[in-house]
Write a structure and sequence with these properties.
Number of domains: 1
Helix content: 10-25%
Order of helices and strands: EEHEEHEEEEEH
Largest sheet: 6 strands, mixed
Mean pLDDT: 92
Strand order of the largest sheet: 4-8-9-7-6-5
Shape: globular
Radius of gyration: 13 Å
Distance between the termini: 26 Å
Number of helices: 3
Length: about 120
């Protein structure tokens, strides 16, 4: 699974080799100034909306890749039953929205919401 690292200036998401290959994803650093909202989805797979642009989608079980919905691009790596951290980018920023499954999603969201 992807690992999420929070620093004073950015949120870094590092994908596993499997996620990079199957999901056609690459590691990304999102400046904290580009984050408009942080939420937690209790079931990451259910939180994915739109159509798969690139990557893997095993309906109801696992999704990894880029999904498009209403003029938004969302980088996704989630599996069934796992909470997911959703980072929504500010309008006009180059940063995509991100939905990443993590057991620590609630703790990470709480830390990021303090600085919004």
């Amino acid at each position: 699974m992807a690992s999420i690292t929070v620093t004073d200036k950015a949120v870094s998401v590092h994908f596993s080799r499997w996620e990079k290959i199957a999901g056609m994803l690459r590691d990304i650093d999102v400046p904290r100034a580009d984050i408009a909202d942080v939420t937690v989805a209790l079931d990451g797979v259910a939180a994915v909306h739109g159509f798969k642009e690139a990557g893997l989608s095993l309906p109801g079980y696992r999704k990894a890749g880029t999904f498009r919905s209403r003029n938004k691009r969302v980088l996704v790596s989630v599996k069934r039953g796992e909470p997911a951290l959703r980072l929504t980018g500010r309008a006009g920023s180059d940063s995509p929205d991100i939905l990443i499954g993590s057991a620590q999603a609630a703790a990470i969201a709480e830390e990021l919401q303090k600085s919004l």
